[in-house]
Amino acid sequence: MTTQRREPAELAALRVERNRLRTVHFVLSDIVNAACDTSQQKGYRDCAAEEAKRVHWAAVYKPVLAEFLAASEAYSEARWGSESVTESRAATDRAYANDPDMRALVVKARADLAARRQSGKSVERDRRRSR
């Protein structure tokens, strides 16, 4: 008989947070892609609603992606150790080397998540960041 191994509470909370942010990332992508498709179908006329969706996406996409990257790194580190995440952190840093805003968001997201973990506040309970 096979049963799934139980994760420690901290690891489970990190996995939930990573998956929540992944879902938010996918939903934002779907919204902007649908807005672009609709604008094209309308011949780029009367597209105020679609433009509002693109503006919203532009405002929140980078912070959500930065939080997702930080949550993924934290989960990987908790699950497999710090050596496994060193390479992915370096790759993320290289990918955004020419985007100082995104680099700053990633650094802030890493620091915020580390502070929440250190304070003992449950990662999965901190929902204010997704609004």
Explain this structure to me?
It is built from 4 helices and no strands. The chain starts with 8 loop residues before the first helix and ends in a 12-residue tail after the last helix.
- Beta content comes to under 5%
What's the story with the biggest beta sheet? none
- The domain tally reads 1
Can you give the helix content as a percent range?
A: over 70%
Runs in which pLDDT lies below 50 for 5 or more consecutive residues are none
* Terminal residue distance: 42 Å
Mean pLDDT: 88
The succession of helices and strands, N to C, reads: HHHH
The whole-angstrom Rg is 18 Å
Summarize the structure.
The chain is mainly alpha-helical and 131 residues long.
Question: What is the fold's blueprint, element by element?
Answer:
Layout (H helix, E strand, L loop, with lengths): L8 H33 L6 H33 L1 H14 L4 H20 L12
Helix pairs in contact: 1-2, 2-3, 2-4
Task: Quickly list its features.
mainly alpha, 131 residues, elongated, 0% strand, 4 helices, single chain
